Amino acid sequence: MSPKYKLTYFDIKGLGECIKYIFAYKGIEYECETVILFTGKGPWNDIKASTPFGQLPVLEVDGKRLYQSQAICQYLANQHDLLTGNAWDDAHNVALASAMQDLIIRVARCYYERNLEMKATLMKDREDNMLPFYYKRFEDILKSRGDFYAGKVSWIDFYMVAGIEAVDGMMGADNVSGKFPFLKSHMERVWNLPKVKEYIANRPPYPR
Known about the structure:
This protein is α+β, with helices and mostly antiparallel strands and 208 residues long. It is 57% helix and 9% strand.
């Protein structure tokens, strides 16, 4: 019997999106509970204390809860043939995902800065310095491996695409197109995987 999945995540393009991409690509049925993030009241405040670390995503598998996007993606990859089959390559993919998570955290600190003058200064630094630093390295790694980060479709492809979407959503601009063409081509390859393409065409719009 197939496990029963329930994913709880915000109404944004964040690292919960990589889990949805995996579900779409593999044709896996799941229940999705969407939590409104930016109202400052309501569902998120009501359930935050009940989450393991006050964060989302949380994935329930037959009623058991798993948290943190990397752990969830790796669990699903192990269950649904999205690992590389090579321990060394899988370790490199974890390292790459960790680098993406570092970038997201650093951009998020600026995004949620309340001092608007400080926020503008920090975001400009991220755009001019931090994003090129990370995106250039992501692109170089991809170039060394081929069309996908593991030479075939694996969980890291969905993680990296969702990560860039999250970063560019917070930055309010596309920081890949025209600057990192190989990286952009990879995103388009992932978006155009048949079941992923169908999911994207039918998903509701996000506030960012």
